[in-house]
């Protein structure tokens, strides 16, 4: 599903944000990506939807060679990789339903199909009753659930969440985790970047740990593998 082979990313300022990372994530896995700030988590996640391109190595996502994908095909990869951000990135002048519909309009689907899908994804995150409200009228946790619904709208195979609980109180963070676990049970592969030790400890899943751009640890089903 996701395979990195000696993937490295050097930014224009000379920093190697990701160094020689090799890893595999199977379809349907739920994986935490942890490590201190600046260790390369966001950059690694950006390599998956070609928001950034590797300097060396290979990044294979679903059937796409993300490291070698022509620009005109990048939208096909992005349809398979839903993204959730720490700060929600909702459009504040639009209602909850409109925020999600907006993500679908570029696909050229009919209005009827779009409306049906909007209701389906709001049902998954338990927010159908708030569909006509503005994001500013919702709590932070609810806004994040809307952004999860929006990320699911295109039926992605993979959901990448970069610090999705970073702006939330502990109770809301747990609700977001449960929503992501529910999405995962429906077959979506999840990679979640996080600093939230409480969440990682209370909701155990595989953990990939980064340090200074390298993958230093892979803790899988209770088995800890130190990396080279
Ligand atoms: P994390 O998500 O673990 O905090 P990042 O991937 O954001 O780590 O950053 C890894 C390193 O790359 C840091 O040293 C950061 O300053 C640098 N970096 C991140 N984005 C850019 C960029 N767009 N241009 C230059 N350097 C960057």
From TrEMBL:
The keyword Nucleotide-binding applies. InterPro entries: AAA+_ATPase, ABC_transporter-like_ATP-bd, ABC_transporter-like_CS, ABC_transpr_LolD-like, Cell_div_FtsE, P-loop_NTPase. Residues 2-227 form the ABC transporter domain. GO terms for cellular component: plasma membrane. It is found in: Cell membrane. Keywords: ATP-binding, Cell cycle, Cell division, Cell membrane, Membrane, Nucleotide-binding, Transport. GO terms for biological process: cell division. Its main location: membrane. It comes from the Bacteria. It is a peripheral membrane protein. Pfam families: ABC_tran. GO terms for molecular function: ATP binding; ATP hydrolysis activity; transmembrane transporter activity. The keyword Translocase does not apply. It catalyses: ATP + H2O = ADP + phosphate + H(+). Belongs to the ABC transporter superfamily. Homodimer. Forms a membrane-associated complex with FtsX. Part of the ABC transporter FtsEX involved in cellular division. Has ATPase activity. Essential for cell division and viability. This is Cell division ATP-binding protein FtsE. It comes from Facklamia miroungae.
